Amino acid sequence: MIKIAQYLVDNTFFMNNPFSEVEKMILKALLEEEQIYTYDNQKQLMFELLLREKIIEAAKLLASSKAKFAIFRFSRCNEQFWQRNHLGGFELKEGVLPSAGINDIFENSHLYAFECATAIVIVFYKAVLEVLKEKTFNELFANLLLYDWRYDEDLRVQTKRGDDYIPGDCLYFKNPEFDPETPQWQGENAIYLGKGLYYGHGIGIKTKEGMIETLNTKRRKNAKKSAYLEKQTTRVGFQYLSTFAPQQEQARIFLNPAHRVIGKIGSATFLC
């Protein structure tokens, strides 16, 4: 369900908006969730739809790139933009803009190799870069470090328990009986692309069953427990990031008043 200010809304209130097909898919998922997704205003919702769409696009772009999967010990980067540190992470070189560093991963992907958590953070950065002005992005994310789940606090990444996930969220497939010789396959971080598909770096784009099947081939000998999708969701701080969006690019949602009925339960006002 979606709540804008004090109003619960349904899909009839968005019928006059020119959403893309991906945005329609995301909006449908938000509306169908039992959990209420609350927004202070229309701008916040529009921004989230756009950023989720860009996360999906960035994930697909990385999936089709030549960037390889590698554990930290064997990670690689374009040394024109990044300095590989002793942990296998990538530190932005002095004088290189964060936007240039992120874009190079996609433009010269054959020079890069990293593991799945770093890939998710890269996808998040790329998506945010697509929706903010480049100058704003560079100010927010100066001195970038790409290493595991290390990220700039301005991404406002949060992980919560529950199985209410929306296209553009990051999920985790856990492999409880992984082969100790290959600990990198103890699980897989994956972006939910919608329509039952997930992208995980090193595995590619697969269904839920495909992800689990792949991880099950990475289990220890005589393993009995299957890999599974954990009930947790990781997402960026959509509403926080929306405060940095270009005002002139924030389209207005035209709510259709024809079906609006205002109701009240206790002190809560809602539409149905």
Keywords:
about 270 residues, alpha+beta, five-stranded antiparallel beta sheet, three-stranded mixed beta sheet, 17 strands, globular, disordered C terminus, protein-glutamine gamma-glutamyltransferase activity, EC 2.3.2.13, acyltransferase, Protein-glutamine gamma-glutamyltransferase, Gln_gamma-glutamylTfrase_bac
Number of strands: 17
With strands numbered from the N-terminus, the spatial order across the biggest sheet is: 13-12-11-10-14
Percent of residues in helices comes to: 25-40%
Structural class: alpha+beta
Roughly how many Å apart are the termini?
A: 11 Å
Low-confidence blocks of residues: 249-272
Largest sheet: 5 strands, antiparallel
CA-based gyration radius? 20 Å
Kindly give the count of domains: 1
Put simply, the count of helices is 7
Summed over residues and divided by their number, the pLDDT gives a mean of 91
Please trace the helix and strand order, writing H or E for each element.
EEHEHEEEHEHHEEEEEEHEEHEE
What percentage of the residues does DSSP assign to strands (E)?
15-25%
Care to give the gist of this entry?
The chain is an alpha+beta fold. 30% of the residues lie in helices and 22% in strands.
Molecular structure report:
The chain has helices spanning 21-32, 42-63, 98-107, 116-131, 134-140, 208-216, 238-242; strands spanning 2-4, 7-9, 37-39, 68-69, 82-84, 90-92, 113-114, 145-146, 158-161, 170-174, 187-194, 197-200, 204-207, 228-229, 232-235, 262-265, 268-271. The chain has 272 residues and is of the alpha+beta class. The chain has one domain (17-253). Strands 13-12-11-10-14 form a five-stranded antiparallel β-sheet, with helices on both faces. A three-stranded mixed β-sheet has the order 2-1-3, covered by helices on one side. Strands 5-6-8 form a three-stranded antiparallel β-sheet. The longest helix is centred in the first third of the chain and has 22 residues, at 42-63.
